[in-house]
Amino acid sequence: MENILKIKDLTVTIGGKEVLSDVDLTLLPGKISAIVGESGSGKTMMSLAILDLLPDVAARISGEILFRGKNIFDMDNKEKQNMRGNSISMVFQEPFTALNPVMRVGEQITETIAAHKIISEEKIQGCLKGLLKMVKLSEDIASCYPHELSGGMRQRIMLAIALSCDPEILILDEPTTALDVSVQKEILDLVMGIQKERCFSILFITHDFSIVNMVADEVHVMKNGRVIEKGAKEIIFKSPENEYTRHLIDCIPKLGDERERLPESE
Amino acid sequence: MNAIIEVTDIKKYFAKKSFFYGAEKMPVKAVDGVSFTIDKGKTFGLVGESGSGKSTIAKLVTGILVPDSGKMSIEGDIDIVFQDPFSSLNPRMTIRDIVGESLFVKGVNREEIEDKVVKILHRVKMKNMECLDKYPHQFSGGERQRIAIARALVTQPDIVVLDEPVSSLDVSIQAGILNLLKDLQEELALTYLFISHDLRVVEFMSDVVGVMKSGKIVEIASRQEIYSNPQNEYTRHLLSSIPKI
Amino acid sequence: MKRYIAKRLLLIIPMLIGISFIMFTVMHLAPGDTASIKYGMNPEVSGSARANFDKMYDLDKPVLVQYGLWVKRLISLDFGSSLIDDQAVMAKITSRLPATLLLQIISLFIIFLIAVPIGVISAVKRNSFFDRIMTIFVFIGYATPSFWLALLLILFFGFKLGWLPISGMSPWYTAYLDSFDRTKDLIAHLVLPVVATAFGSLAALSRYSRSSVIEVMNENYVLTARAKGLSSSRIVTAHILKNALLSIITIMGLSLPALISGSFIFETIFAWPGMGRLGYEAIMNYDYPVVMGVGVIATFLTLIGIFLSDIAYAFVDPRIRVGGEK
Amino acid sequence: MNKRIIFGIVIIFVMTLSAVLAPFVARYDPLKMDLSEDARLEKPSREHFFGTDNLGRDVFSRMVYGARISLSVGFIAVFISLGMGIFLGGISGYYGGWIDSVIMRIVEIMYCFPTFFLIMMVITFLGPSIVNVMIVIGLTSWAGICRLVRAEFLSLRERDFVQAAKVQGVSNFRIIFRHILPNAMGPVYVSATLSVGGAILVESALSFLGLGIQIPEASWGSILTAGKVYIDYAWWLTLFPGLAILITVLSFNLMGEGLREVLDPKLRERK
After folding, report:
1. Model confidence over B81-103: pLDDT tens digits?
2. With 70 as the cut, is the pLDDT of residue D268 above it?
3. According to the model, what pLDDT value does residue C325 have?
4. How do residues C171-208 score in pLDDT, each as one tens digit?
5. Residue B245 included in any domain
6. A178 with A94: CB under 8 angstroms?
7. pLDDT band at residue C29 under the 50/70/90 scheme
8. pLDDT of residue C32
9. DSSP string, A150-205
10. What is the spatial distance between Cα B39 and Cα A39, in angstroms, rounded to a whole number?
11. Could you give the number of structural domains in chain B?
């Protein structure tokens, strides 16, 4: 199958410290790939690198990120802007800080459409209604400000923004970590439903193997800036090759767990 | 039964402050008539989502907050371990002072403090003993949580309130802390009030589990009952929301 | 929102009472308790003024009672009359107020219109040549004794170059000019006082704007905006500026007292016929009724200014305007 | 180390040292007049670095002695406002309730009030003197530090390590002085450093209006003021004292900003 995004030998250095080392990753169309790792594994850096949004502070980058065959580090600003939010879009972890507090959420959705599509104001409003319906919010939410919404609702708004231009790739960076479990389930079900319908690719970044189990087709396990294991989900879960991967899966308490002690790592 | 903590119908309302002066009419019912008992040497797990009032219970039981009404009887000394080891250790004190402070304020002499601090740090498996003169920022999250546990245990309390003690840790670190807590409970005959939003962790730790929602305990039962035969709608909903491995 | 405005407006009253009480107490700190000692310090005080003064301040009564009576008269805007020339204090102040307001409001506009763009450009183009130059300007501007700057301005533009008038607002000859020339003359007289008044606050506010913009640029929603593929101009205008404006408005309100404080110095240096100079002269002459009057009116103006900035803040921030805090 | 802090400290150190060692640094008696025609209003020269004034006194020597007054006004005024601000802000933030309300109302009053007018009033009515100037500036400038300390106390009070100390029965006294205050001091240092510059500026403005230091003693502000009459043909009388004030205030501000950069976690690189 032809890949839609290919990362080759990506190395990123911030302030003399290597946060990503020789990362290779391939994203296939219509598939959900998960990146799993603990804090400091570099998984968030990966997502920012794909949109070339790494912090300016001394980020030294080598390697390539090819989107449809074109290296994004070779793109000019115009091309990058065209790609962000349009072909590749992203949902962040913190729904409380990721939305502008002084702008109505409706406008935060429509400004994305207006930035990428040349269509009439009426059509934009039509899109807005469709998007709100898709993320299962009522239309009058559009005139609310973020502080009037709950965490789950805000994350739905983020999702509507990310999907507003029919992206080919959706990056979800710990989208449910800040939410309660019941809300997490709703959001995950929602995302999976929409993905089935529209068949875009998802890069799902998380620390939680149980979520990986629920959503992913492919899994990449990261540790200290490196991808230490990758493969199809079933294989990774059944017979992980890497000791660390096995440990990450085993050390979570499971429902109905009979174990008296959990395995500890060194 | 020998209940060491008995809480009967406690309530705590917070007046909701509006943006400027003056209180709003509707107070937030953080804890709205909660009762439970904990038997000596057992773990009572309290689980609920954000805003359910579980952390307020921790503050009421430890005396940081005073309940508006209701009765609490607690037999024995009580101490607490908080969620965030980055905020629960004073950044300007050395580990020796942090762990030894409660002994110091009780007037214990210097050698005895030193002795007890070293012993308890061994017990929580702090690996190197050069840590005594270091400051909290020189440690990792897991090590800090061990230090926080040492601080809570140095005065040999009977009861420890664990308020989301592993929620801000990576899963691989979390396993070590949970094991440690179990070991310590056995060795020192501790009674735990274990508070968490994570049903899996609560199941792993607890003997009896209470499920909280909007300031009330909606279901309370033994671990087996809660997890294999939940009676309450909300408990079932929570259980079905957990992604399975 | 209406409740917010009403509450803010009501707050002015206790503030005014508190401040006037402090001033009242300070006046009683003056050495000696009786009126005669106070007059002894200033031979210009006339006999009738003495009678007025006794009546005005009921000096035989305890301080709190005196204050109560003073407040009672204040409600009908009666500040008594000057000890020096027997004129009503209120009339003296109202005749001086327009000059002060003219100077202050123009300065305020200039500060805002120059400082905010400087701050925004410095922040967006951080560490650029422009930013470095502005940082130096800001630090020097902030440390310059403003009266010294005023003297240097007078020296260069008044004495050495002779370009601009150095004192007064509308000299006698303006009566003979047509309105266009009169305005021109007024503007010429305004230049130096405005520059001196605005200079320090200009530096402070541009520094502050810079740091608030930088702070906003680090917010997650700006990252979201970039990830959405918005153009940088859209990000700056729609997302960064409005949020940074919130803290800039607050600081503008809080810088008003400093501005008013400056008026006591600059109106004296430039012989500007405003309230600040009136207050300074009154203090030097121990003209208590005028001192109290100027103090209360100056405070009142500051409070109104701060009230307006509160309103502006609420207008920008939906968390206050719409409410429903979560 | 931060460049700004180093620059600030070096200048402040040199200024303070020469003020302390004034008799050795100054080449002339600052009060010695020489009314002969060629000794008055002399231009800066090798003999008189900053020229002489209308009474034939050496301006450089006068400024070295003036530094004593200007700097000590700055330091002592800030010392007073620091003491008041920390005390009131501390109890306000820690205890809250009605004490907090009362103190915060007073702070708001100080904030909304053109304090310079109050300072002018007090100095005039009490009589101008160095001590009065120091005290009055100190007593009118604590509101900022008070608010800062209160905000720090309010947030630290809710931090888990303070809660833990409470559970362990640590006394309020020890919680305040061992747990909260040391963690609250960072922004206070910054604000105090900036305030020293501010106090020096206020003193000079007061002297300029004739309300500051009285003759024969002199601060930079009063030397400048005495020279303003001759501004047209003896520019050195106003230029040098003004520059001295500017450079000193600048050093304090640079040091304060530098400290802020070092101490403020927001300005540090994010993790």
Report:
1. 998 888 899 999 999 999 999 99
2. no
3. 38
4. 767 677 777 877 888 888 888 899 999 988 899 899 99
5. no
6. yes
7. low
8. 45
9. -HHHHHHHHHHHHHTT--SEEEEESTTTTS-HHHHHHHHHHHHHHHHHH--EEEEE
10. 37
11. 1
Contact B178 A211 (CB under 8 A): no
Flag whether B69 is in a domain.
Answer: no
Could you give phi then psi for residue B30, rounded to 5 degrees?
Answer: -65, -45
Does the residue B20 lie in any domain? Answer: no
What pLDDT score does C326 carry?
31
Is A94–C220 a contact, with Cβ atoms under 8 angstroms apart? yes
CB pairs under 8 A between A and D: 3
Interface of A with B in 185-214 (CB under 8 A): 185, 188, 207-211, 213-214
Q: Please answer yes or no on whether B102 and D183 come within 8 Å at the CB atom.
A: no
pTM of this structure: 0.85
CA A25, A28, A29, A34 torsion: positive or negative?
negative
Q: What average pLDDT does the segment B211-218 reach? A: 93
Q: How far is C305 from chain A (nearest CA, A)?
A: 23
Q: In chain C, which residues have their Cβ closer than 8 Å to the Cβ of A161?
A: 224, 228
Q: Look up the ipTM and state it.
A: 0.86
For residue B20, the chain C residues in CB contact (below 8 A) are 4, 7
Cβ separation of A111 and C234 shorter than 8 Å?
A: yes
Q: Does B18 touch chain C (CB under 8 A)?
A: yes
Contacts (Cβ under 8 Å, ≥6 apart) of D23: none
Residue D147 confidence (pLDDT):
92
- CATH at residue C223: 1.10.3720.10
| Number of compact structural domains in chain C | 1
pLDDT in tens, A109-143: 999 999 998 889 999 999 999 999 999 999 999 99
**With helix as H, strand as E and coil as C, how does chain C read?**
CHHHHHHHHHHHHHHHHHHHHHHHHHHHHCCCCCHHHHHHHCCCCCHHHHHHHHHHHCCCCCHHHHHHHHHHHHHCCCCCECCCCCCEHHHHHHHHHHHHHHHHHHHHHHHHHHHHHHHHHHHHCCCCHHHHHHHHHHHHHHHCCHHHHHHHHHHHHHHHCCCCCCCCCCCHHHHHCCHHHHHHHHHHHHHHHHHHHHHHHHHHHHHHHHHHHHHHHCCHHHHHHHHCCCCHHHHHHHHHHHHHHHHHHHHHHHHHHHHHHHHHHHHHHCCCCCHHHHHHHHHHCCCHHHHHHHHHHHHHHHHHHHHHHHHHHHHHCHHHHCCCCC
| Interface contact flag, B245 A252, Cβ < 8 Å | yes
* C61 band by pLDDT with thresholds 50, 70 and 90: low
Residues in chain D: 271
What are the chain C neighbours of A85 within 8 Å (beta carbons)? 227-230
Interface of C with B (CB under 8 A): 4, 7, 319-320, 323, 325
Instruction: For residue B112, give its domain range.
Output: 85-157
Domain assignment present for residue B95? The answer is: yes
Confidence of residue C39 (pLDDT cuts 50, 70, 90): low
Report the pLDDT averaged over residues B189-214.
Answer: 94
| pLDDT tens digits for range D21-52 | 877 777 777 777 666 777 676 777 777 777 77
Task: Nearest chain B residue to A180 by CA: give it.
Answer: B49
Q: Which residues contact C158 (CB under 8 A, 6 or more apart)?
A: C164, C165, C166, C192
pLDDT value for C37: 42
Q: Which helix (H) or strand (E) holds B32?
A: strand B28-39
Poorest-pLDDT segment among A8-12, A148-152, C288-292, C322-326: C322-326
Domains, chain D, ordered by start: 3-26+47-270 (1.10.3720.10)
